[in-house]
Amino acid sequence: MPPLKTAAGPSAAAGEHAPPIRELFYAEALKEALRQEMQRDPRVLVMGEDIAEHGGAFQVTAGLLAEFGPTRIRQTPISEIGIVGTGVGAALTGLRPVVELMYIDFSGLAMDQIVNQAAQNRFMFGGQARVPLVVRTQGGSGRGNAAQHSKSLEAWFTHVAGLKVVMPATPADAKGLLTAAIRDDDPVMFIEHKLLYRTKGAVPEGEHIVPLGKADVKRAGTDLTIVTWSREVLFALEAAVTLAEQGVSAEVVDLRSLVPLDKVTILASVRKTRRVLVVHEAIKRGGYGAEILSIVAEEAFDDLDAPPKRLAGLETPIPYAQHLEKGVVPQAQDIVRAALELVG
Amino acid sequence: MPPLKTAAGPSAAAGEHAPPIRELFYAEALKEALRQEMQRDPRVLVMGEDIAEHGGAFQVTAGLLAEFGPTRIRQTPISEIGIVGTGVGAALTGLRPVVELMYIDFSGLAMDQIVNQAAQNRFMFGGQARVPLVVRTQGGSGRGNAAQHSKSLEAWFTHVAGLKVVMPATPADAKGLLTAAIRDDDPVMFIEHKLLYRTKGAVPEGEHIVPLGKADVKRAGTDLTIVTWSREVLFALEAAVTLAEQGVSAEVVDLRSLVPLDKVTILASVRKTRRVLVVHEAIKRGGYGAEILSIVAEEAFDDLDAPPKRLAGLETPIPYAQHLEKGVVPQAQDIVRAALELVG
Amino acid sequence: MDKKTALELYRVMRTIRRFEQRSTTLFGENKIWGTIHSYAGEEAIATGVCAHLRDDDWITSTHRGHGHCIAKGADLGKMFAELLGRETGYCRGRGGSMHIADTSKGNLGANGIVGGGIPIATGAALTAKQLGTDQVAVCFFGDGAVNQGTFHESLNLAAIWKLPVVYVCENNQYAESFSTKFAFAVEDIALRAAGYGMPGVRVDGGDIRKVYDAAGEAIARARGGGGPTFIVAESHRHEGHYYGDPQHYRTKEEIESWKTTFDPLLDARTWLAADAVASESELDAIDQEIETEMERAIAWAEAGPPASPIKLPEEIYATS
Amino acid sequence: MDKKTALELYRVMRTIRRFEQRSTTLFGENKIWGTIHSYAGEEAIATGVCAHLRDDDWITSTHRGHGHCIAKGADLGKMFAELLGRETGYCRGRGGSMHIADTSKGNLGANGIVGGGIPIATGAALTAKQLGTDQVAVCFFGDGAVNQGTFHESLNLAAIWKLPVVYVCENNQYAESFSTKFAFAVEDIALRAAGYGMPGVRVDGGDIRKVYDAAGEAIARARGGGGPTFIVAESHRHEGHYYGDPQHYRTKEEIESWKTTFDPLLDARTWLAADAVASESELDAIDQEIETEMERAIAWAEAGPPASPIKLPEEIYATS
Ligand SMILES: Cc1ncc(C[n+]2csc(CCOP(=O)(O)OP(=O)(O)O)c2C)c(N)n1
Ligand SMILES: Cc1ncc(C[n+]2csc(CCOP(=O)(O)OP(=O)(O)O)c2C)c(N)n1
Ligand SMILES: [Mg+2]
Ligand SMILES: [Mg+2]
User: Nearest C-alpha of chain B: how many angstroms from C271?
Assistant: First the structure.
C-alpha cells in the first residue's frame, strides 16, 4: 500500500492550545509518544521481543535503546505469557510497563495473564490495586504473512470486563491515544495495524493526548453513517470520496476506542443519517461490529430508514497468496458497494 | 440449584427410530456418550486433569478409568497448552482425542493451540489434514468459585474461523451433541455449564446423535422469541411458564450449536413472533448475543414489531459472595421482566 | 535460633493451623460459600519463608493461600470476613478464599490459576531491580504449577535478569488427585533449577528450622543482588485437596499417617522442649492466646455487614 | 559411513542450500510474497536427522522450514509453487513459506508460532504409542523456542509417558536479533533435559557425521520404546533472520566469518575428499544434477496456475 495521507481528526487536538503540527509516519508518532512518556516518567519501561538493536518488528522502538538503555528498553526471550505476566507484576508494584506482543496472533499465548490477572485484579481484590499496563500489539492482513500473523482479534478483548481496547487509525490518534493509555491506571490493549505504520499524517508536537472513549467523526455526511476503526477507516474515507462523486454523502465515524465505547457519537450520527454500515477487517461472526450494530438496533431502531448492515472479513484464516489475501477483507470498493446498497 | 427437570427437546431424538428413554443427570449423559464412543472406536481417548481416580472435577469420567484403563483415560499434569497441543498432534495423526479443560477460564492458557493450530490447520495447509479434536470444558457462575472459575467465554471461540462451538442445555442434547462432536472431523469446543451437571432429563439409550448446527425450539410460542443457550435455556423455560400465566406466549429457541449456527430456525421463529429477546450469561459487550441480534436486525428488520433486545451478564468479573454472584447474571425473573417490556 | 524467633515461628504456624481448622468448621456450617483448600501440614513453609520478609517485600500466593497470607502478617478478622462474604473482608467479599490479597503487607494476592502468580512475582522483583530498591519478591506455588509454562518462562527471565525473587515450590506430593510420582519423570524437582542457571535447593518442609535457614539464605542472596533461587520444600497436606475431597487417589492409611508422622507443629513442640527452648506450658499458653484471638476474629467477621452491591464501572476501572 | 549414505547426505544438504539460494533470488525478483527465512548454514541438522526417518515417521517444522521439508522428501516443484502462490503448491497457495506441510511424507507442517509445533509432535508420538506402532516423531525448533511454555510442558509430558519423540533444537545462536548469550543464563541448553528426566545431547550441527550419529541413536531409542531425547545442535545461520534483515545485532565480520568457518557443505566436501569417499568431480557432478533439477522445479512451479478462489466452508471444515 502506498503511504496514505490522513488528516488529524478534528477532535484530535481537542482541549489543547493547539501545538505546532507536522507530518509523521504512524510508527514515528507511536515512538514519539513512547519517548515523551519515558522522558516524563522514569517508571515507564518497554518490554518485548526484538525491540532493542532491531528497533521492533515495525521499527516503533528504533533508536530508543540508545536513548534509554537496555534496562528501560528491555528485550525479552520469546516468552509471551512470561513477559505479559511480568508486566502485570511490575504494574502492580509501581512501574508503568508497556509490553509489546509482536503480533496479536500471539496473544493466545498470553491470554491468561491479560484476562485472569491484569483485567480482573482490581475487582477481584476489592479495589486494593491498580494495573497501569499497556499491551502494545498489531494485527491485520496485507503483508503476505498468512494465517498466523494476520488476524484481527480485537473482539476477544472487548468481551473482557476490566480491559480497555484502543485501535488508532491515524498518526495523530496513535500518538494521542498511546500517551493516554500509558497514563491510564488500567490495563489497555493497544492494537495497531501492520499496514498503518507507513502511513503519514499531521501530528502535534509536544504533549498530545487523545482521551480514551472518544470516537472521532473523520468525515461528516448526511446520507449514511459508516462506523469503523483501524485500517478500515482509511478505506472508508477513500470510499466516501467515491460515494460523494456519486452524490452519496457518507459520514465516517472512527471509534478509536472500542472500550470504553463512545455510544453518544455513534447514536447521534445514526439518528442524523438514519442509515448505518459497520465495517471491520475481522471475520464477521462474533466481531465487534455485531456489538455496534446491536447497540444501534436496540437504541435507535425507530430512527433507522433501512436495516443496519455489517461489512467484514470472510470466515477464513488469512490466505498467503497476494491475490487471495486482498479478497478476504473489505477494500474501499467493497465499502462503496455496500453503502450504495444501503442507500439505494 | 435444586436438580431441575428438563424434557428432551422435541427434535432431540429426531431422525431416529426413537430408542428407549429414561432419566439421567447431565453429567451421566455426557459419560454415556464418552463410554459409547470409546467402546465403538478405539481411536477415541480422553485426556485431562484429575479425570482418572477422581473422575473429573464434575464426575463426568467417573468409572471410565476402570473400564478403559490409564492409556485411554489419560490423566495429565497441569499443562493446558501442552495437553491441548498434544491433542492436536494426536488428532492429526489418527486418534480422536477428547481433551478436557477443567474450567473454560483456563482456556486462555491453551488459546494458541486451539486457534492458531487446531482451527487453522486445515485451511492453512491447503486441506491436507483434518483435526478431529474435541475440547470439553465448562463455564458459568453459581458455585462461588469467583472471577477465575466462573466466566462464560463462548464468544471468543465463535470468532475463530475453523472451530465449531457447542453448548448443550439438557442431558439429552449433552449426549447427542457430544456423540456428534466426537464423530466430527473438525475441532469442536464443547462447552458445558457447571450448574447443569446435576440437572436431570430423559435421555435415549444406545446411539443418540444430535447433529451440530441444529437449534431446538424447546417451547413453542407466539408473542416473542427468546433465543438463548446453555443454562439460560432453563431460566428461559422457567420464565416462559410465568409469562404464560400472565398471558404472554414465549417461544424458546435453544441454539445448542453456536457454530455452525441455525439461522433458519432463528429467523423463522422471529418472523412468526415479530419480537426477539436474546439472553446469555456472558457479559453483554462483545457477547454472542450481539451476533444473533445483528443477524435478526440485518435479515428480519422489517418483520420486527419492536426493537430487538439483549439480556446478559453485567460487565464485571464474577464476584464471590453468594448474594452478589446471583445478581450479575440473568435469572428467570429478569427474563420475565425483559420479555414483558418487549411485548408491553 | 533464639527463643524469641522460635516462639514467634511456633505462634505463626499454630495460628495458621487453627485458622484452617476453624474455616473448615465454618464451611461445614455452610457459612462459607464456594470452596476452601486447607494448608494444614504445610505451615512450616510459609512461616519459615515469610519470617525473613519485610512489609515492603512482596509475595504471590495460591488457591491454598491462607497460610501465606497469615505468615505475611494479615489480619485474621479481615480474612474470615472475606471467607464469609462480608464488606469488611480483605476484598469486600468479591474474592473469597481463592482470592485474598493484602497489599498493605505486600501480599499481591492468592491466585485461582495454577502458576498464575509466578510471572507476577517475577514482575514485582523487576520493579525492585528497576527502581534500585532492596525489596525481594517471594513466589509460592505447588508441585503442580511446576509443569505450567509460566513456571518455565518466569524462571528463565529471573535468571537472565538476575532478579531478586525466590521461587518456593510447596511439594505436597499431589496436584489435586495427581501424584508427583506420575507428573514428573524426576524424583527431585529442584533439579530443574540447573537448566535455568539458578541454585536449586531441596528442603524438608516439615522442619521449620530447615525451611527458615534455606529461605534465609535465598532471600539474603536475592536482597544482595545475587539473583533468584528455586526452593522445593517437601511436605504433605493433611486434608483433601479441597473441603469434601473424597481422596480416592490415596489410601486412608496414607492420609492418617501424615497427620502423625509429618506435622510441623508436633515436630516443633518436640525440639522446642528437647532443646529446652520452651516448656509445654509456655506453648500451651501460646495456643490458648491464639484460640482467643481466633474466636475474637471470627466474632468480628460474623458481625460485619454483607458485601455491598457492586458499583460499575468504578470497581473494574481505576480511571473512569 | 558408507559411500552411498555419505553422498546421499551431501546431495540433500546441497539441495537445501541451492533451494535457499534460489528462493532468495526469486524473492529479490518480487516473485515471492510475504517473508522467507533461510536455512543456509544449518543444512546438516535436518539432513542428518531425517536420514533416519521413514515416510511414516512424523516431523514438525518451523518458520525456517524449507530444509526440514526437503530432508523429509518433499517435491521441490510443489515447494516453489507454494512460495509462488500457485494452486499447484503444497498448500494450494494458502500457506506460503511459513506454512508448508507434506503429510504424504509425514511432514505435519511448518509453524509460524515459535514453539507451536512442540506439543503437536508430542501428540504424534502419543498416537504411535497409543496404537502400538514403531513410528517416531521428530520435532524441530530453534533456540528461541526453548523459552516458550510449550517446550516445557511438552518435554515433561513426553518424559512421563516415555513417548517416541526426539526434540531437536537448532541453536543458531540467535532468535531474530536476540543472542542466546542473553536469552539464557546457561551456556549449554541441553542441560534442561535433566530436569525432565530425559537424555540431553549437545552436538556440532555443522558436522553431518556427528548429527547423523547423535540422531541415529536418539531415534533408535525412541523406536525401541526408550522414550524421548533432547538434542541441541549448535549451528549458525549464514543469512539474516529473514530476507532483508539489516542485522544490526551482529557485526559484518561475524556474518562473513560463519560463511567460511561454519559451512556443513564445505566441511563435508573436505572430509569426503580427505577420506577418499568421493572425488571433487563426483561432487561437482551431484551439484550439477541438483542445479538442473532445481531449475526444472522452478520452471514447473512458475508454469502453475495461480491459487484458486477460496471455497467456504469446505476449505475450513472437513465435515460440513
Ligand atoms: C491453570 C489451572 N489448571 C487447573 C486448575 C485446577 N486446579 C486447582 S488446584 C489444582 C492442583 C494444584 O496442585 P499444586 O500446584 O500441587 O498445588 P496444591 O493444591 O497441591 O497446593 C488444580 C489442577 C487451576 N486452578 N488452574
Ligand atoms: C510465539 C511467537 N513469538 C514471536 C514470534 C516472532 N518470531 C518469529 S521467528 C522468531 C525467532 C525465532 O528464533 P529461534 O526459535 O531461535 O528460530 P530461528 O529463527 O533462529 O531459526 C520470532 C521471535 C513468533 N513467530 N511466534
Ligand atoms: Mg501439590
Ligand atoms: Mg535461533
Answer: 37
